């Protein structure tokens, strides 16, 4: 468990609605959470946990999971995406080979229910699948992941599924790779010009995203949609982790996404971004930063003030490691 102190799902649903958050990502398919978000306008991205990927190699198991864990709540609960595993491809072990077969079984189950066009599916990857690339137009995938990326990209293309990625400019800052203004969207001028394209960039988030855009384009997948399934900033645990920096990063990120116009290399592509995370996670393993990405405390008071706009019908997304105390891997 990553939390043992969270509010009840119906309280979380009320909080999310009150904050004008329109899109929520959870990391499992807990029935209490799915029930809590029924008859709301919130669009839900649900997840298959890494621990369940072995079971998802069986089509009959996946059919049963869809029938028992998803369909009873749909469409009253507006489930729009299913994520299959989380950052599994990064591990470079045998488990990575479970992802695409599991997704194939999910597709097959959705087709049986005639929902393949209504519920999209993919698997979130970390930016580790990209080679360190500068400038962005030199972006390529790391050859270490070739064996798993080739079938994954073909599968996503075949099913018109989005490429999901977790991007954290915070770690560029934490590793000393960048200036704070560049990472917090505070640079008013260009931080570099891509010599190959002549395009200038003024923040690290866009630069990281364009590395991915070019990596996909170099593989002839330039039309593949990208969803940033996690980004955020911790409030404690490192010299750059502070309430002030977290508020600045997420506020400026929201403004950047809402104002458009995409990234320098893909200016017409609408940005779809999920902020991690709704709550701090008091039991999460690892450095202190890992437990302090939340924008709310478990008592539902704000860690800092973040305004979620509703401009022209476009609203905001939040990734919640769990919307209650459920049996999660992280």
TrEMBL record:
UniProt keywords, alphabetically: Disulfide bond, Glycoprotein, Glycosidase, GPI-anchor, Hydrolase, Lipoprotein, Membrane, Plant defense, Signal
Location within or outside the cell: Cell membrane
Any one GO molecular function term: glucan endo-1,3-beta-D-glucosidase activity
Catalytic activity: Hydrolysis of (1->3)-beta-D-glucosidic linkages in (1->3)-beta-D-glucans
GO annotations of cellular component type: plasma membrane; side of membrane
Cross-referenced InterPro entries: GH, Glyco_hydro_17, Glyco_hydro_17_plant
Membrane topology field: Lipid-anchor; GPI-anchor
EC number of this enzyme: 3.2.1.39
Gene Ontology BP terms: carbohydrate metabolic process; defense response
Protein family according to the UniProt entry: Belongs to the glycosyl hydrolase 17 family.
PANTHER family recorded: GLUCAN ENDO-1,3-BETA-GLUCOSIDASE BG1-RELATED-RELATED
UniProt name for this protein: glucan endo-1,3-beta-D-glucosidase
């Amino acid at each position: 468990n990553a939390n043992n102190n969270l509010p009840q799902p119906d309280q979380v649903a009320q909080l999310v609605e009150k904050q004008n958050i329109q899109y929520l990502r959870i990391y499992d398919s807990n029935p209490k959470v799915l029930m809590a978000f029924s008859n709301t306008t919130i669009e839900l991205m649900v997840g298959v946990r890494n621990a369940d990927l072995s079971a998802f190699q069986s089509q009959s198991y996946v059919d049963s999971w869809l029938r028992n864990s998803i369909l009873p709540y749909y469409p009253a609960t507006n489930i729009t995406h299913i994520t299959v595993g989380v950052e599994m491809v990064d591990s470079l072990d045998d488990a990575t080979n479970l992802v695409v077969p599991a997704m194939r079984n999910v597709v097959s189950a959705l087709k049986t229910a005639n929902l393949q066009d209504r519920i999209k599916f993919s698997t979130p990857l970390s930016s580790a699948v990209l080679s360190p690339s500068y400038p962005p137009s030199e972006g390529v995938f790391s050859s270490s992941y070739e064996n798993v990326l080739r079938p994954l990209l073909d599968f996503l293309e075949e099913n018109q599924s989005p490429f999901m990625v977790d991007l954290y400019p915070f770690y560029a800052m934490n590793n000393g790779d960048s200036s704070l203004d560049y990472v917090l969207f505070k640079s008013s001028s260009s931080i570099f010009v891509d010599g190959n394209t002549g395009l200038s960039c003024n923040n690290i988030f866009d630069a990281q995203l364009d590395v991915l855009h070019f990596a996909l384009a170099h593989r002839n997948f330039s039309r593949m949609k990208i969803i940033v399934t996690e980004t955020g900033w911790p409030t404690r645990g490192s010299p750059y982790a502070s309430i002030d920096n977290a508020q600045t990063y997420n506020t400026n990120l929201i403004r950047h996404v809402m104002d458009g116009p995409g990234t320098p290399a893909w200016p017409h592509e609408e940005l779809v971004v999920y902020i991690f995370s709704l709550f701090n996670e008091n039991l999460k393993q690892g450095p202190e930063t890992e437990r302090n990405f939340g924008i709310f405390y478990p008592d539902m008071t704000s860690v800092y003030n973040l305004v979620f706009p509703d401009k022209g019908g476009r609203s905001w997304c939040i990734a919640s490691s769990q919307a209650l105390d459920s049996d999660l891997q992280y």
